[in-house]
Amino acid sequence: MNPESDESASPSEPVTPLPLVPHIPPVDTHRTPSIPPRTGANYVIRHWRGDLSLPRSYWVNLVALRLALGGLEYGVLSFAHQVDDPRPIVLAGAVLDLAICLVFVWQVVGVINCARKTKLRSTDHFWPNVAFVLVLLGIVATITKLPTLLPAIWSEFTMALVPDPYNRYSFDISGDGTTLYVRGTLGFSFPAEFKSQLKEHPQVHTVIFDSLGGRMHSGLLVGEILSQGSYSTQVETKCASACVFAFMGGTHRTLGPLAKMGFHHPGWPSMISEQYVQAEITHEKEFLGRRGVRSDFIEHAYATAFKDLWVPTTKELFDAGIINGVILNGKLIEAAAYANSLSGHQAIDAAQAAPYGIRK
Fold it and tell me: Could you tell me if 121 and 229 lie in one domain?
């Protein structure tokens, strides 16, 4: 056979097969490639990146955690009225408020990233879009609260860390050691020092107040202390605002011949936490009710704005259960005798007409 012949090779010779070409499906230009979630990072980072499932990011990390932090804050601040000095509790509340703000940023960024990635992984965009809308509404609501929220946090830090301007009080003991005189405004340090005075002078059975007020918490706590014993309380010339709660701790409560008492809604540092305020007000009203004060009198007192002061008449104080005696011309006049004494009414009302630093 001629090697240069054009004839085909013999059938006995092996034939090399052509390589198989794999089938390549057409590219869908309308579908965004899937982004697999990253693993290996800690839980906080995975939420921030949006690598968790959308239900977990929204319902667990945003909604459930938000409710838990709010409940924790309310619980912490509600405990403040049970301690002598609430400033450490208020400081903890301020730190918690600040932490809630920072956590909220982490929460919304994580949900937004998760919703965005969920849309890339799936053709169903309904729930990611719902999450976007709900988070946006939460952001708008939070922004509208910032003008009050930030001053509240600042006020809590100030209240907890700045020296208390109401710590301007003094104590005096009578010569026989049975009467304790309290004068000045009642600051946060007052309850602890008041207890020390009672411990140093166990013969004391009467406490006489001359105070325009101070910290409601301090007055209320001293009232609780006095209510646990058989102390008598008396107003020397004036007792208003926080002083009223301390005075109400006495079993027998009397007014001096020129004494006045003033009531109003408590005032707080600018925009302080609403949870703390409501817990304190609830405790104050409960205390007055336990001491026998009529509910309508309590509501009238709390309806008086902080900038004003309601000064009830002696008869109103008797009728409401605030006092059970007045001192006139060196004699004690109790409720029944006062009601039957026209001259007593006139003399006391005339004496109370003189100003003693309490506004009507």
Answer: no
Q: Is the CA virtual torsion 306, 308, 313, 314 positive or negative?
A: positive
Phi, psi of 184 (to 5 degrees): 105, -175
Q: Is 237 part of any domain?
A: yes
If one counts the domains in the chain, the total is: 2
Same domain, 210 and 255: yes
Q: How far is CA 353 from CA 205, 242, 258, 322, 328, in A?
A: 30, 23, 9, 20, 15
Q: Which has the closest alpha carbon to 217: 177, 195, 246, 196?
A: 246
Q: What is the pLDDT of residues 75-89, one digit of tens each?
A: 887 777 778 888 898
Query: Does one domain contain both 154 and 222?
Result: no
Amino acid at 66: R
Residue 215 CA to residue 205 CA, distance in Å, equals 24
Domain containing 253: what range? 168-352
In this structure, the answer to whether residues 288 and 333 fall within a common structural domain is: yes
Q: Which of 266, 255, 273, 150 is nearest to 209 (CA)?
A: 255
Q: Do residues 227 and 316 both lie within one domain?
A: yes
HSE of 130, CA atoms in CB hemisphere, 13 A? 7
How do residues 57-81 score in pLDDT, each as one tens digit?
Answer: 999 999 999 999 988 988 887 777 7
